[in-house]
Amino acid sequence: MSSDKSKTTGRPSRKEAEEAVRTLLRWAGDDPTREGLIDTPKRVVKAYDEFFGGYDEDPHEILSRTFEEVAGYDEMVVLRDIPFESHCEHHMAAIIGRAHVGYLPKNKVVGISKLARVVETYAKRLQVQEKMTAQIADCIQDVLEPYGVGVIIQATHQCMTTRGVHKHGVSMVTSRMVGSFRKDDKTRKEFLSVVGNFEPYRG
Fold first, then answer.
1. Active site includes 139?
2. Active-site residue 159, yes or no?
3. Of the four listed, 29, 31, 82, 107, which is most buried by Cβ atoms within 10 Å?
4. What pLDDT digit, counting tens, does each position of 21-40 carry?
5. Over the chain, what is the mean pLDDT?
6. Confidence (pTM)
7. 190 is known as an active-site residue
């Protein structure tokens, strides 16, 4: 995010964001004017630029460049183990995980880096894992119009490990099956067999 984005998006200014961080530091019980914290507001706002850069990206646009010359290829395309970092919208705590994405092309395919970018774009927003899983699958289905899409996400949630119940070593798995991945047992089993040979994700 550039420093002047507030002029066109209605967002608070960078200066206002930094002041909000100072308020939180005071609320936590510390002094934002002490040496170790003087530059913390700037660092936090800069980190937020990175953490939440997905709001400035359009995942549908990312997938818009497709290829139709695939020499008749009509088998499943799967991208496994896409790492991502997100933040839970309830506590703004980190969600660390990986995604497995597959689709069965009909008339067009997309560069595999674009699939990873779609995951990244949705991850770099305040999220709920279930919603993120559905967003990724539905975006791929909407833009590529394949026979079907499958998305599986495994992640650990710091809102569960660093607060609340404090349960470590627990990972959450969500999935979304669209089109033939939902309707055709053979297609779904093939996808699951490709991505299913992994160790449980521990962060």
1. no
2. yes
3. 82
4. 999 999 999 999 999 999 99
5. 90
6. 0.88
7. no
